[in-house]
Amino acid sequence: MSAPADKNHAHHLNGDAPAPDPRPNQTSSFDKVRPGISPNLPERYIIKTSGDDRVLTCLEAPNLNVHIENGLSFSGSVAKKSPSGTIFLDGVAQCEPFMDHERKVYNLDHHEGCVRAFTLSTCEQALVMYMKGLDLQGREWNVFANEPDLDTLMAIWIILNHARIGSQDSTQRRILFALVRYEGVIDALGLELKELSALPPELMRKIQRVVDHLRSEELAIKKEGVWDKSDYLSYTVRTLHKIDQIFYKPSDFADYQGVEELARIDLTDQRICAVVEADMGIYEIEPHLNKLYSNRLGVVFLKKGAASYTVRQMDLFMPLTLDDVYDRLNFVDPAVRCRTLGNKWGGAADIGGSPRTSGTALTPLDLVQACRDAVRKPDWAKKAYRLAVTAALVGFITLIAHIVRLIWAPAQWLGKENLQLPWISPDFGFILALLIGLTISLMFVAYGRSWQYGWNLPIGKQWWLLLPAALAGGIIGGSWISKDLILSGDWMVLGAVGLVLSPLTLELLFRSLAHGLLAQDNRIQRCDSRWFLSWPIFGGAILYAAFALTFLYCCRLDMRPIALGDVAMTIVGALLLGISTGFARERSQSVWPAVLFHILAVTTQLLIIQLA
């Protein structure tokens, strides 16, 4: 492939006398492009890369993504079922041209399912759709092509420049229409029928030189035999810039600001969140954002440095405030790790910024995803589904541990009859299996985001207020120690296993694993937030109560006969202990206070039983 053309030294056309124009004293756009003269136009077309996906976009139309891939094609049935906001160009969709206005899916083509000689070319179809009022600004669009011939490139240029075409003067528009018509006739009928364009001979010669100029690099690459292996997107960027040099002059971009969109996402049907980068402040850039996005922009992040952002709520009537966004960002940002006493996302209700000390560790895509999560609060159906999934995982781990408890016989397995407590206790095998199971689960679900599962040192002091409630829950019957260890009378083993290992395992299971899973879709407290009962606290307490009633009831400390009152006391105690340790987990932003409270609750209950 030939070397890329210098962005400021593209080849130009010879300047000939202007074609007759109905308006006197007007200069044709073709005459502004002369040898050695390169208008200083901005580079508006960029290629974005996300993994293996590369798309072309225009900085002035960030909602339009152009995909060009050699050999790309879709069957007609697949094309017609494509997502809303899809445009197929020139043979990508293997079917007749169609317009699905309801689903916003279009196929601009003149190859299959039509009489080619009687059908407009792709670039003419694109121009007609623009002139008929197709809204290319109100949503995100994906444009697909499989070869950047001039017909396809003119269609792409029209789509990407739809906003500026409307502001061109009538002379420029007529010249654009002439070029599109001439290229359309050549592409559909062949060069021998170019007179059917009905253009005056002199204008036709000028446009032919424009076509030759725009196709010069394509012909050179094809002559080298590397067209199919060339970088279509890079070639498209260069050719689109050549077309800009024909129809625009530097003064057309006097108010142009190079605002680059880094990421975007739909917040609601009418509002989006975008991350942009520009050499301006957030208030200076607002008029340009309104021009780019109209009234669709709900929240914007302005990148100011490598890890520094300003966030602004553009629509103050959206069903959220930035406080909701800050909460979500502080939950997911590895630079904050839920440590919201200082270095955190924060600010006013309509404008704020990233952590000042460290900046953010989130990517632009992470930012818009967090913003959408803050807007789309889960309904009760989604909460119930997340609770059911979490219960299934906790139940599976518990079931495996219970099976281990039933078959636990280490003396027989190891051939050592002199094994002592705690090794021979089935309850020890149960706790050990629980610990192994939850550890494996945490390794998978908490990898790279351990702080979301409480693996932090505690902060604040308010969580100490929950200690009396936790102790009361344990005394009522919400905590558990193996009766085998109690009856053994070995206080060292009882302390190590019953007072430390068991509470540690249960809190990691319910206040780390279960709570962390439930918190992925639900807001939780911070050390500096208002007090409220979050869904992860309540859901974790429900799971712990079910666990206590199902698997631990037979091992209660007092060992009284089972009665309805005992069941009620176990449920109430487990709920009280679970809720209080859940509050401690969230207010401290750490699982370790919950572990401490559970240990103290078990110790208190054991002391009361011993004294009784």
Describe the protein's architecture and organization.
It is a single chain. α2 (about 120-130) runs parallel beside α3, α13 (about 425-445) packs parallel to α16 and α16 packs across α18 (about 565-590). The chain has about 600 residues and is of the alpha/beta class. The termini are far apart. It has helices at about 75-80, 120-130, 150-160, 160-165, 170-190, 200-225, 230-245, 280-295, 320-330, 365-375, 380-405, 410-415, 425-445, 465-480, 485-490, 490-520, 535-550, 565-590, 590-610, and strands at about 45-50, 55-60, 60-70, 75, 85-90, 95, 100, 105-110, 140-145, 260-265, 270-275, 295-305, 310-315, 345, 350-355. It contains 19 helices and 15 strands.
Write the layout of secondary structure elements.
Blueprint: E1 45-50, E2 53-58, E3 61-68, E4 74-75, H1 76-80, E5 86-89, E6 93-94, E7 98-100, E8 105-108, H2 122-131, E9 141-145, H3 150-160, H4 162-165, H5 170-189, H6 201-224, H7 232-247, E10 260-266, E11 272-277, H8 282-293, E12 297-303, E13 309-313, H9 322-332, E14 346-347, E15 351-353, H10 364-375, H11 380-407, H12 410-414, H13 426-445, H14 467-478, H15 483-488, H16 491-519, H17 535-552, H18 564-588, H19 592-611
Parallel strand pairs: 3-9, 4-6, 5-8, 5-9, 11-12
Antiparallel strand pairs: 1-2, 2-3, 7-8, 10-11, 12-13, 13-15, 14-15
Helix pairs in contact: 2-3, 2-5, 3-7, 5-6, 6-7, 9-10, 11-13, 11-16, 11-17, 13-16, 14-18, 14-19, 16-17, 16-18, 16-19, 17-18, 18-19
